[in-house]
Amino acid sequence: MMKDKTAPTMADVAREAGVALGTVSRVINGQQVGEEFREKVNAAIQRLGYKYNSSGRALRTDRTNTIALIIPNTINPYFALLVHHINMELEKRNRRMLLCFTEYDTNRENELIQMAQQNRVDGIIALTYNPDLTIPEDVPFVTIDRFFSASVPCVAADNFGGGSLAARRLKELGCANVAFMRIGSTLVNEPSKRKEGFVAACVEMGLPFEVMALEDGAPFEEFERFLKEHMKNGKFAFDGLFIGTDMLAWQIIQVLKKMGLRVPEDVQVIGFDGIRSFGVLDYAVSTIVQPVQEIAEACVSTVLSKHLSNVPSLICLPVSYAFGGTTREST
Amino acid sequence: MMKDKTAPTMADVAREAGVALGTVSRVINGQQVGEEFREKVNAAIQRLGYKYNSSGRALRTDRTNTIALIIPNTINPYFALLVHHINMELEKRNRRMLLCFTEYDTNRENELIQMAQQNRVDGIIALTYNPDLTIPEDVPFVTIDRFFSASVPCVAADNFGGGSLAARRLKELGCANVAFMRIGSTLVNEPSKRKEGFVAACVEMGLPFEVMALEDGAPFEEFERFLKEHMKNGKFAFDGLFIGTDMLAWQIIQVLKKMGLRVPEDVQVIGFDGIRSFGVLDYAVSTIVQPVQEIAEACVSTVLSKHLSNVPSLICLPVSYAFGGTTREST
DNA sequence: TTGTATGCGTTATCAG
DNA sequence: CTGATAACGCATACAA
After folding, report:
1. Which class is domain A159-291?
2. Which segments of chain B are extended strands (E)?
3. Which pLDDT tens digit goes with each residue over A48-59?
4. Which residues of A touch B54 (CB under 8 A)?
5. Residues in chain A within 8 Å Cβ distance of B55
6. A308 with B2: Cβ contact below 8 A
7. Can you give the pTM of this predicted structure?
8. How far is A225 from chain B (nearest CA, A)?
9. Domains A66-157+292-317 and A159-291 share a fold
């Protein structure tokens, strides 16, 4: 159980097999080696139960085969999904994941980047909010949902298109008065475009709309107040709501129900993200689904690409609509 | 953006500061160093933007300050919670997490243990199902929810107590005919005791009960069949259900509703795990809550403890009941 | 207290 | 195609 009796090294294997150290290395790295030598080495490896030491390799090659993922947490189901798919994509490519949580602490975001660099990760994938994020120059860096500059690749869903899709869908479903609601950081990032897309589509279609946006930290009661203000003698001003995230949509729906409104009969609600109950069951609400798998694939292949210079600086992936019980039909 | 211009090393810092290599190392590791030297070194570190290379340190000290967490996935909200709290506990102790997903693949469980050892992690925390798991001898190993032997520490919630608590609570809430339902691996692990505790309490209280247990892979329809079989002329045989997990409880409740039964008016349901909607909102169902934070703390402090030999081999942590809308009252 | 020198396990360069 | 040997960056035992 204790970590004392030092593990066998390549030198041990070489001695056991009666060959040179370099030969063992070559066998392990699958390079050209004479058949008889290869067999002797493999036999010795078996006998000794040798496992190569990646610290030594990392020091020598300056590659760890490890990617750091910096993300707020894994409690939010969307982040949990992202972590999962990114890890799977890394696994496919035989890379490891160093997982770092920021808990939305902007200082920690920077600290974790430093830490990841000390650990000589081969790349960093980060979903952050710090307006003054220090982006390292000497390690491949990919951001999610946030565009910095053309020199740092950003992967995101088509948030604008998603907002627009939500508006069009609500109209198709018969809505005549809609509203957009969100709470989030003041930072302008890709998810900010959910509103833009929604507004643009409403304007284009001539669909009357309102926008209710709160900053992080604002009390939830502000939403309740907003909703109640739009309730006049038992009649609600909106028959369709597009909410910035599925989680907020869920919360809003609870309020609507307490106000005596039925969802989707009286008000139809569309969220954003594509969260399922318990991760795998039905969609929690009708929603614009982020293509998490594709986002993960894009992040990983980008961060691992040899020449980051000729990689697109903004990878925008298509979203889709999914029925989750809070709209009037599934399609 | 590319990873070429080699980062400054301790030797560079030493040269820049006009001191010896060892002195730099001592400053960095916070050992006794003369004030003037310390300042010179720190200044040089700043000037060069030096960050120590943990590959070098790992090779030299045979410690990586990294713990591997081996777990099925992070899509299941309970696992997501576990990952989160374990990571936070590691962070507190200045350790990193290497996250590995098994996807319930028993072969991969063993492979990941090998991989973690190659990566020279300082310890492994694992939640696995392989009946023939190869537990490494030379690295601290802690398991979650599964007891192997006295020599490998296991951390788990008090599953037996939780089952018993569920039975007692259902009785307090007025139930007269109850059932336990679960689906899971045939492996006998700590969660298996949920049934034992439930049955024991029912027997002790003289509460009539039935048990419906399915093996992993069985079709969900079996549960539907079971429920419908117990529906005789509009009357359901049970007024209380204890379900092995919150997720299954949620699924069962959908079936009950489709059968025209009201929850909690006609049937009260208690799940297990303590899952909240979107990770942070209300409990998804009334539930026996696992003390995830405490489980995480126990895993981390155990895996990092110097002498695993005098550590308890089974750490069993108390659960609690929480109202989640599927029982008739809170508290 | 500081400087010097060695070796951790590996890969890569050179000779043979 | 194989063997010997020199780094990689760091911590530490030992010398000053």
Report:
1. alpha beta
2. 66-71, 96-101, 123-126, 141-144, 154-157, 178-184, 209-215, 231-232, 235-236, 240-243, 268-273, 287-289, 314-317, 320-322
3. 999 999 999 999
4. 118-120
5. 55, 58-59, 62, 64, 120
6. yes
7. 0.95
8. 20
9. yes
